[in-house]
Amino acid sequence: MNIIASLISAFRQARRRAWWRKNWPVVLFLLLFVCPCPFCLAFGLADQAIREVGLLPTRTPRPPATATPTAGEVAPPTSDASLFAALEPLLVLPGDLPAGLDGAQVRDFAPPGLDDLPAAEVVIHRQFARGQEVAGGVTVFLFGAAATAEAGYDQVAACLEGQTALIADLGRSALSAETSSAVEVLFSHCAALVHVRMEGVDLDSALVYARRLDERLIGWACR
User: Fold this and answer.
1) 164 in helix, strand or coil?
2) What CATH homologous superfamily does 80-221 map to?
3) How many CA atoms lie within 13 A of 82 on its CB side?
4) Best exposed site among 10, 25, 50, 216 by fewest CB in 10 Å?
5) Residue 219, burial from CB neighbour count under 10 angstroms (0-12, 13-18, 19+)
6) Which H or E run contains 39?
7) What is the SS3 assignment for 78?
8) Cα(182)–Cα(197) distance, rounded to whole angstroms?
9) Percent of the chain having pLDDT more than 90?
10) 160-165-171-173 Cα dihedral, nearest 10 degrees
């Protein structure tokens, strides 16, 4: 009796909808004279009627799918730490450095002389070493905007010593400086600012490395 009462109550509510008003005599006929299992159909109709009037959800929501990067794609970083981890392996690859120089320690702060620039999202500095001696390094700043990177470029460029020269085909703005003991390459590209210092090598060797690094960083600098 409880089942029949539930069915009647739900059926009356559902009849308010146009389809039920039009077809309820046919459904009632099927229920009473055609269906081999009236109680099975009764349960089905009750469930459908209840869902039609909005007492139960019509489906179970699924969580949104999360895109998974395919081969060759790089997932965008979600924090400064993950951005640092993504950029650090790009600083020095096999064959990048002139003979005698090796990549050494990696730090998350700039060396003296580069530590007073505008605040950056990420700062990565990797030393170069010749044997046990430090022989320069590369520092990468990733700012939140290209304008900030250009401002940092102007600030560092004003402090370079030695013989300076503009460099073509490197980043957006690029400048070299040579002294008797070291060469420096400074360039900006979109939101990135890069400073390279190498001791005991010629300028051409430093430029080869700088251009390779620029190509690797462009996807992150120009996001």
Assistant:
1) strand
2) TM1622-like (3.40.1000.20)
3) 6
4) 25
5) exposed
6) helix 38-52
7) coil
8) 7
9) 52
10) 70
State both tokens at 180.
């008797």
Distance (Å, whole) CA 51 – CA 59: 10
Question: Quick one: tokens of 133?
Answer: 């001696």
What is the C-alpha separation between 186 and 5, in angstroms, rounded?
83
Q: Tell me 122's DSSP state.
A: E
Provide the token pair at 50: 């209840």
CA distance 98 to 46: 80
pLDDT tens column, 126-181: 999 999 999 999 999 999 999 999 999 999 999 999 999 999 899 999 999 999 89
Is residue 188 within 8 Å of residue 171, measured between CB atoms?
yes
Please name the residue that has the structure tokens 């980043």. Answer: 171
Domain range list for the chain: 2-52, 80-221
